[in-house]
Specification:
The complex is a heterodimer of chains A (418) and B (881).
Chain A (H helix, E strand, L loop, with lengths): L1 E7 L5 E6 L9 H11 L8 E3 L4 E7 L2 E7 L5 H19 L4 H6 L1 H11 E2 L2 E2 L4 H7 L5 H10 L29 E14 L5 E15 L5 E6 L7 E4 L5 H7 L1 E4 L4 E10 L9 E9 L5 E10 L7 E9 L4 E8 L3 E5 L4 E7 L8 E8 L12 E8 L8 E7 L6 E15 L2
Parallel strand pairs in A: 8-23
Antiparallel strand pairs in A: 1-2, 1-5, 3-4, 4-5, 6-7, 8-9, 9-13, 10-12, 10-22, 11-13, 14-15, 15-20, 16-19, 16-21, 17-20, 18-19, 21-23
Chain B lengths: L1 H25 L4 H9 L4 H16 L8 H6 L6 H14 L4 H14 L5 H13 L3 H15 L4 H17 L1 H6 L2 H8 L5 H16 L11 H13 L2 H11 L7 H11 L8 H15 L7 H17 L4 H17 L19 H14 L5 H11 L5 H17 L4 H13 L3 H17 L8 H6 L7 H13 L7 H9 L7 H17 L1 H17 L4 H16 L1 H8 L15 H8 L5 H5 L64 H4 L2 H19 L2 E3 L9 E5 L42 H6 L9 H12 L7 E4 L7 E10 L2 E10 L5 E2 L4 E2 L7 E2 L14 E9 L13 E4 L3 E2 L6
Helix pairs in contact in B: 2-3, 3-5, 5-7, 6-7, 6-8, 7-8, 7-9, 8-9, 9-12, 11-12, 12-13, 12-14, 13-14, 14-16, 15-16, 16-17, 18-19, 18-31, 19-21, 20-21, 21-22, 21-23, 22-23, 23-25, 25-27, 26-27, 27-28, 27-29, 27-30, 28-29, 29-30, 34-36
The chains are: A alpha+beta (418), B alpha+beta (881).
């Protein structure tokens, strides 16, 4: 099972280590550093590395490497999932997952790691179970603790761990009972030069925020569940009910959680909300090029496209860009060669355009590779797949909760080739 | 007590002395003393803060072991947080201060009796983490109690503790009977306890390969399946992985397990999904294909696999490596999902390369247009490795989907026009492969290729270009000039290029003998006289002799029609694939290597095979028996197990046995089998001492069949070359006296392998056939309860025979002999039963001959001529005297 964990920052310093079995020397990370140097970009470090006596499985998140050492045959996905869970937990506890925050809360992090794994076997990874045992730091609590000598470690048995609903603690009480669901869809798409869709799919997720007293049993049903190609559920969802009735029936965890992930594949027609007209070309003779991009609405289901942004990774030889946007502003980062055009709201009457010239390094040949465009956008109040929640029912408790469903569509990996 | 106190003082001094020097470099001056004072403070709050500071220093790797006694003194507290912190410290430093750690034992034992189950569990858990022998002795009693605790939380913690203890002292765990208690926990009422018991047992089983720790029967399976629905995601992974080891009795049971596992495909945790996929892929083999449920199951597998690809890149990578296996085993599952493998420009490179690999596997006539458009797009990307692979992929499409060949070739030509150096080189390498698949179809492009001759600087591309020039010499007007230009720097070229150049010039000579005589002499003399490379020299001599002896035969050999190359060159060998399918989701599946190849993990991994009732390995076991001359269909055995995307379709020269086209290799095997085995069975060893069965392993360290894999010393003797191919080349044997039978043996349509030394060796050796290697000792009596076997392989009347002498050196009578051939590289199998009719009395020996055929199952062995035999004989247990 998982033997040790090393947290390594962007520049390659190990700033935290935790061993669940015998101590493994830091020098094992040298193999990782070797691979890191070879990969150049931190994103490209292979996640599974073989060394003479160990395997190193790592993830790269928030500019940090979470590197685990294993010695026996362990499913790598198991390790990777766990590492992401560690990162999630740290983020959940401290608001973000960064080196400085981890260093500030090093003891809490250490306690968390100790609770999450025992002898390399996962012990408690549910956030609400962990929070019962180790309370997340808040300013108020630290003040109170110093005054009355309280502690941030719970001294009761995390009851949730033993019940048949380990994700929910007993005795939850709220004065305002509310259940909110966010249906968030991301469009992953590749469009080719001419604007034709090469590939498109929708990744959807339903995030829930449930604050309900007692042991409520909820049923969430959809208008059109057949849309979904593949679903994966939070452990609380009863799979049988889904299979027979296509409804989500569950006793919710307390607080925020991901109820369900779903996938609408390219087999179904995926709506593409915007079109992009672009022309990026470089001259054979002179060290410069032209850029002209226009974006317009395609199928927005009557809603406004917001937070529109275009990101372009320019070829290495582009040294500067002299462009004029009709809307929004642009920046060109010389070091990373990334051009970002922040547009904002898309106005269908006056389409945003970015045009101008690019200059290349003197003497550099015409770039061989064509830059791709990455599009970011957001559409409120609509799930682009057309998925709609029809109703939410509650059983098991007598009170009447506030209910709400919000929809939002975003661009995921939305790329336009040039 | 007094003693303890003294010891404590000593240790304290010793401890601080020991770390002082280090502490100046790692911590601020005086910090340790300050902490010491705080730890011994009367105020609880101050104590706790101090322990926290100590832990903080510890986590960042500072040495605070000097504070050991002070921290341990804080252990006796009712403050849970403080207790936990002290425990954390103890786990870290107990190893370095074992004597001190003993002080903690009493508190542990007391805590194990605490009314609060959280404290009980914590105590037993921490105790297991202290890897000090003295402590573990005290652990047994509390652990035994905790394993039977009324609270499931304590039981589940205790289950893991058994695994910890086993890691420290395996014998102790067995002696104390903890393993049985652990097995009982599989039937526990609480699903989490079941899951942890399974996890602990699996870990222990890994270091005990032959133990029946996880003895699965339908009852336990039922319990596991029930627990599966109710335990945590991690527990589900343990249970699913455990289920995958089970072999259902019939297809009914198989189906019912599949039905109960299928809901796991909808789990949010990708590791659960992949483990479920493993169980389903394995148990599916048992289901009859015409069953409705089989089709339903196939359909259910695709969506979760696709969804895995939208996860984080690290997860994607592992998923893709596994999908690569699944696609090879059951292409139908994902055949409509090509698009999800399209590459996004900001995917990490390791994801891009894997996606590309799978795209090629899924390419078919139906989707080839899309795939090609994508590949062309990729070929203009920035990343060199990726671009190269994309170009190779285009070539592979051409070979795989005939209809697309023309489009692929024109795409490749477009790419060559870009003049980007590495693109051009890759394109030339793959065009060579296309020529081999579709001869006489696309030669019009040769002119374009020749234009780029000068820019080629990589050996592979140069070799490919030379091959093309040699192969089509008659259509290239200036072929001789082109080849001559390469000849100038002959000695600076890599072996690959040298060999190719030699062959190409010989081809050229045979096609245009008049104007190239000088050139061929030049290359032959370069190869034979000025080169230190035995491969090159031998090939040079063979050509030389061939040309000087019988140019007509030479023409037939060298210019023979080449077999077409097969479509997929980098498929994983079927037996390995089956094994890997059983290990989906593991490290083995990520590396595509058999689980036994893994470092520490290799201890306990047993070979697993798909239990399939149908279709498992049918391709393996049906080599083409009709073709006597050896032009059999490509046996999967010679397909490389680890190629890069394209493998080398034409890499005849460097590694014929691993990446070469199949027919020559199999020819060589069949014809050369006799010599190979005869010459080589000199060192035999039986690894195991407990017959029966007795595996026999024959290793020939210096194998003439593999001149390239194990480079032979330059002066190896002719006998080692198998036959007596007039070739003690190093001694400069006269060229004018060829073995009389040589041309005859070459008339067989086997010349596809002309480049390979061993064809010649085998071909010549056979008709001469007089040399029968003497018997060698295969199995010493000591290793087989007194049965000594020596033997050899001979060919009598055209039939390969294995001749053995069995000698009973034991004190009792042996009878009921039988023999079993394990799968081997040549498909050797007994053609008839082993005929030993009489029982073998002590000290008697008997001669036995077993006719062999080469139609048995083929599996590539390492080394190639490794053969394993099993003799399950019965020793009559009759005491002498």
């Amino acid at each position: 099972m998982i033997h040790s964990l090393f947290l390594i920052n962007h520049s390659g310093d190990i700033f935290l280590e935790k061993h669940w079995k015998s101590v493994i020397s830091r020098s094992v990370c040298d193999y990782f550093f070797e691979a890191k140097d070879k990969a150049v970009d931190p994103e490209n470090v292979p996640p599974v590395l073989q060394t003479p006596h160990h395997y190193l499985i790592s993830i790269y998140r928030d500019k940090l490497f979470f590197l685990s050492v294993i010695q026996t045959e362990v499913p790598p996905l198991f390790v990777i999932e766990f590492l992401h869970r560690v990162a999630d937990t740290i983020q959940d506890y401290f608001g973000e997952c960064s080196e400085s925050l981890i260093k500030d809360n090093v003891v809490t992090v250490y306690e968390l790691l100790e609770e999450m794994l025992d002898n390399g076997f996962p012990l408690a990874t549910e956030s609400n179970v962990l929070k019962e045992m180790i309370r997340p730091p808040t300013i108020l609590r630290s003040v109170v603790n110093t005054l009355i000598g309280g502690s941030n470690v719970g001294d009761t048995l995390p009851t949730g761990q033993l019940s048949s609903v380990p994700w929910r603690r007993v005795g939850v009480k709220y004065t305002n009972n509310e259940a909110y669901f966010d249906v968030i869809e991301e469009i992953d798409a590749i469009l080719d030069k001419s604007g034709t869709t090469v590939f498109a799919e929708i990744q959807g997720v339903i995030e829930a925020c449930v604050r309900l007293t007692g042991m409520p049993d909820l049923t969430l049903s959809f208008m059109n569940p057949r849309l979904l190609d593949d679903v994966s559920f939070h452990p609380c969802v009863r799979f049988k009910r889904w299979e027979s009735e296509q409804a989500l029936s569950f006793i919710p965890p307390d607080g925020n959680f991901t109820l369900m992930n779903y996938h609408v594949s390219s087999q179904n027609l995926v709506t593409i909300p915007v079109y992009v007209k672009q022309n990026i070309s470089f001259f054979e003779t002179e060290p410069c090029g032209r850029l002209d991009i226009t974006i317009g609405p395609k199928q927005t289901m009557g809603k406004t496209v917001e937070a529109l942004m275009v990101t372009i990774h320019m070829p290495k030889s582009v040294v500067s860009a002299n462009l004029t946007p009709t809307q929004g502003s642009y920046t060109y980062d010389l070091a990373t060669k990334v051009l970002v055009w922040d547009i904002g709201k898309l106005n269908p009457q006056k389409l945003p355009n970015l045009r101008g010239s690019l200059s290349l390094q003197a003497g550099a040949p015409k770039p061989e590779d064509n830059p791709s465009l990455n599009i970011d956008l957001k559409i409120q109040q609509v799930a682009i797949s057309g998925l709609k929640v029809s109703r939410l029912e509650m059983f098991g408790e007598k009170y009447k909760p506030f209910k709400g469903v919000k929809y939002v569509t975003k661009a995921g990996k939305f790329q336009v080739r040039t | 007590m007094q003693e303890w106190a003294n010891q404590l003082c000593e240790n304290r001094q010793f401890g601080s002395k020991m770390t002082d020097s280090k502490y100046f470099t790692t911590t601020k001056k005086g910090e340790i003393f300050e902490l010491k004072a705080e730890l011994n403070s009367d105020k609880k709050e101050k104590k706790k803060e101090a322990v926290k500071k100590v832990i903080a220093s510890m986590t960042v790797g500072k040495d605070v072991s000097a504070l050991f006694p002070d921290v341990v003194n804080c252990m006796q507290t009712d403050n849970l947080e403080l207790k936990k912190l002290v425990y954390l410290y103890l786990m870290n430093y107990a190893k370095s201060q074992p004597d001190m750690a003993i002080m903690a034992v009493n508190t542990f034992v007391k805590d194990c009796e605490d009314p609060n189950p959280l404290i009980r569990a914590l105590a037993v858990r921490t105790m297991g983490c202290i890897r000090v022998d003295k402590i573990t002795e005290y652990l047994c009693e509390p652990l035994r109690k905790c394993l039977k605790d009324e609270d499931p939380y304590v039981r589940k913690t205790a289950a893991v503790c058994v695994a910890k203890l086993h890691d420290i002292n395996a014998q102790l765990v067995e002696d104390q009977g903890f393993l049985d208690t652990l097995k009982d926990l599989i039937s526990d009422s609480n699903p989490m306890v079941v899951a942890n018991a399974v996890a602990a047992l699996s870990e222990i089983a890994e270091s005990h390969p032959n133990s029946n720790l996880l003895d699965l029967n339908p009852q336990t399976i039922n319990k596991l399946l029930t627990a599966l629905n109710e335990c945590t995601e991690w527990g589900q992974i343990f249970i699913l992985d455990c289920l995958a080891n089970y072999t259902p009795r019939d297809d009914r049971e198989s189906q019912s397990i599949c039905e109960r596992v299928t809901p796991r495909l909808s789990h949010a945790n990708s590791a659960v999904v992949l483990s479920a996929v493993k169980v389903l892929m394995k148990f599916m083999e048992m289901l009859p294909k015409d069953l409705d449920y089989y089709g339903t199951l196939l359909k259910k597998l695709a969506p979760p696999l696709v969804t895995l690809l939208s996860a984080e890149p690290e997860l994607q990578y592992v998923a893709l490596r596994n999908i690569n296996l699944i696609v090879q085993r059951r292409p139908e599952i994902l055949k409509h999902e090509m698009k999800v493998f399209f590459v996004k420009y900001n995917d990490p490179i390791y994801v891009k390369l894997e996606k590309l690999d799978i795209m090629i596997r899924l390419a078919s006539q139906a989707n080839i247009a899309q795939v090609l458009a994508e590949l062309k797009e990729y070929a203009t990307e920035v990343d060199v490795d990726f671009v190269r692979k994309a170009v190779r992929a285009i070539g592979r499409c051409a070979i795989k989907v005939e209809q697309s060949a023309e489009r692929c070739v024109s795409t490749l030509l477009d790419l060559i026009q870009t003049k980007v150096n590495y693109v051009v080189q890759e394109a030339i390498v793959v065009i060579k492969d296309i020529f081999r698949k579709y001869p006489n179809k696309y030669e019009s492009v040769i002119a374009t290729l020749c234009e780029n001759l000068d820019s080629l600087d990589e050996p592979e591309a140069r070799a490919a270009m030379i091959w093309i020039v040699g192969e089509y010499a008659e259509r290239i007007d200036n072929a001789d000039e082109l080849l001559e230009s390469f000849l100038e720097g002959f000695h600076d070229e890599s072996t690959q290029v040298q060999l190719q150049l030699l062959t190409a010039i010989v081809k050229l000579f045979l096609k245009k003998p008049t104007e190239t005589q000088e050139l061929v002499q030049q290359v032959l003399s370069l190869a034979t006289q000025d080169s230190d490379n035995p491969d090159l020299r031998d090939r040079g001599y063979i050509y030389w002799r061939l040309l000087s002896t019988d140019p007509v035969a030479a023409k037939e050999v060298v210019l023979a029609e080449k077999p077409l190359i097969s479509e997929e060159t980098d498929l994983i060998e079927p037996t390995l694939l089956e094994e890997l399918i059983c290990h989906i989701g593991t490290l083995a599946s990520v590396y595509h290597k058999p689980p036994s190849a893994f470092v520490e993990g290799s201890r306990g991994v047993q070979h697993k095979r798909l239990a399939g009732s149908s279709g498992s390995g049918e391709s393996v076991e049906s080599p083409d028996t009709g073709s006597a001359a050896g032009v059999s269909e490509a046996p999967p055995a010679v397909i490389p197990s680890q190629g890069d995307l394209l493998g080398d379709l034409l890499n005849l020269d460097l590694t014929p046995t691993t990446t070469g086209p199949p027919p020559p290799a199999s020819t060589g095997m069949q014809m050369g089998a006799m010599d190979l085995l005869g010459g080589g069975l000199d060192s035999l060893m039986g690894d195991e001492s407990e017959p029966p069965p007795i595996p026999l392993r024959t290793d020939t360290p210096q194998s003439p069949q593999l001149p390239h894999q194990s480079p032979s010393p330059p002066d190896y003797s002719p006998t080692e070359l198998g036959g007596d191919l007039g070739g003690s080349p190093a001694m400069g044997a006269p060229f004018g006296a060829p073995p009389a039978t040589m041309p005859a043996s070459f008339n067989a349509p086997v010349s596809g392998g002309l480049d390979d030394l061993f064809d010649l060796a085998g071909g010549v050796g056979m008709p001469m056939g007089a040399y029968n290697p003497p018997k060698t000792l295969w199995l010493p009596a000591m290793k087989a309860k007194g049965l000594e076997i020596s033997g050899t392989f001979v060919r009598r009347a055209g039939v390969i025979q294995m001749e053995m002498t069995l000698n009973n050196k034991a004190m009792s009578v042996m009878s009921d002999f039988a023999i079993q051939f394990n799968r081997n590289s040549f498909g050797l199998a007994p053609a008839g039963p082993l005929q030993i009719l009489t029982p073998l009395s002590p000290n008697q020996s008997i001669e036995a001959a077993l006719p062999l055929s080469t139609v048995g199952p083929v599996m590539k062995m390492e080394p190639l001529n490794n053969l394993q035999l099993t003799f399950p004989s019965v020793t009559n247990e009759k005491t002498a005297g």
